[in-house]
Amino acid sequence: MHLLSSLDYGVIISFLLLILLVGLWMSRLASKSLENYFLGGRNLPWYMLGVSGMSGWFDLTGTMIITSFLYLLGPRGLFIEFRGGAVLILAFLIAYTGKWHRRSGCMTRSR
């Protein structure tokens, strides 16, 4: 019983090869210097820096905040997250920290 056609397998293999090539290309660019690794050689616009910072916090929000709401408040703790209560910080990170990173000259959030 075949669930996927040869076209499906071709698309999947092409996608994986494309991701592999992009990853190799980006790792080669990032290995040139610390500024290339952390900030893309300071050639990225401010909104892309903001999205990058937001994506680092998105995983934290998804795992730690929701789990702690469930532990502390039980099932009704999920309604806080469904309303967008803990995720509102991500809009701030996109809007402001990208510009701050560009203007301050720092490389990471902790410095």
What does this structure look like?
- The structure is a single chain.
- By secondary structure, the chain is an all-alpha fold.
- About 75% of the residues lie in helices and about 0% in strands.
- The radius of gyration is 20 Å and the shape is flat.
- The mean pLDDT is about 75.
- The longest helix has 28 residues, at about 45-75.
- Helix 3 packs antiparallel against helix 5 (about 90-105).
- The protein has 2 domains: about 1-30; about 40-110, no CATH class.
- The chain has 5 helices and no strands.
Question: What are the main properties of this structure?
Answer:
flat; 5 helices; 111 residues; single chain; mainly alpha; 0% strand
Relative strand content: under 5%
- The tally of helices reads 5
Give the N-terminus to C-terminus distance in angstroms: 57 Å
Name the poorly predicted regions: none
Q: Report on the biggest sheet.
A: none
Strand/helix succession: HHHHH
Integer tally of domains: 2
Which whole number gives the mean pLDDT? 77
Question: How much helical structure, as a percent, in the residues?
Answer: over 70%
